[in-house]
User: Which sequence fits this backbone?
């Protein structure tokens, strides 16, 4: 089970009746665009309690085609990373969230 | 230009793009992350299209080792959150950072 962006927007709008869906949509999009743009500029994004996004550099390397064994050059790349914040990590494992739905194996 | 983006950077962006007060903008940034946090802690994944997915995973109990003393310690079963970046986010991060690097 998962919550998608439109439902997130819906929930926030219901909790804030003075706002329109359109406003909340704009707020949520602004937030994630801002995070995306920061990472694109190589900046770290730290959200206390929630977690931190950062950019990691992967050097170019010689990889192999697993089927043929042929060596192939893998280009360098920059990848986004997320590290869970302390509050989120603690809350995920606190006893009072007994409402664990299905086991989430993949 | 600051090096790190924080909640206050996001609040400022919301303040500029939506007709709300600074105070309310910052309150809403908190609301958005609280809502995501609440969803994750109740065991549900959160999907933000063109950004990525936060996935809750259950880890089984296992035996770990204190790397300093070599002592065996049980690591209890736990829930963790992993983030899978969308292809849109991955390609933006990759292409822009490469461009920045090559323009130095």
Assistant:
């Amino acid at each position: 089970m998962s919550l998608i962006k439109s439902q997130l927007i819906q929930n926030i709008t219901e909790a804030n009746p003075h706002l329109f869906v359109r406003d909340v949509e704009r707020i949520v999009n602004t937030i994630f665009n801002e995070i995306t743009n920061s990472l694109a500029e190589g900046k770290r994004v730290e959200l206390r309690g929630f977690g931190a996004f950062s950019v990691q550099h992967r050097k170019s390397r010689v990889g192999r085609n697993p089927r043929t064994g042929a060596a192939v050059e893998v280009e360098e790349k920059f990848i986004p990373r997320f590290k869970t914040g302390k509050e989120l990590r603690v809350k995920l494992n606190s006893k009072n969230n007994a409402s664990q739905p299905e086991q989430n194996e993949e | 230009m600051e090096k790190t983006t924080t909640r206050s950077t996001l609040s400022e962006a919301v303040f500029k793009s939506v007709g709300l007060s600074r105070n309310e903008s910052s309150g809403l940034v908190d609301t958005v992350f609280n809502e995501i946090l609440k969803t994750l802690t109740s065991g549900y994944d959160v999907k933000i299209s063109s950004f990525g997915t936060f996935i809750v995973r259950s880890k089984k109990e296992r035996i770990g080792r204190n790397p300093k003393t070599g002592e065996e310690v049980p690591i209890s079963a736990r829930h963790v959150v992993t983030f899978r970046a969308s292809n849109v986010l991955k390609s933006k991060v990759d292409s822009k950072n490469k461009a920045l690097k090559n323009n130095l």
Notes: Residues 101-106 of chain A have pLDDT under 50 and may be disordered.
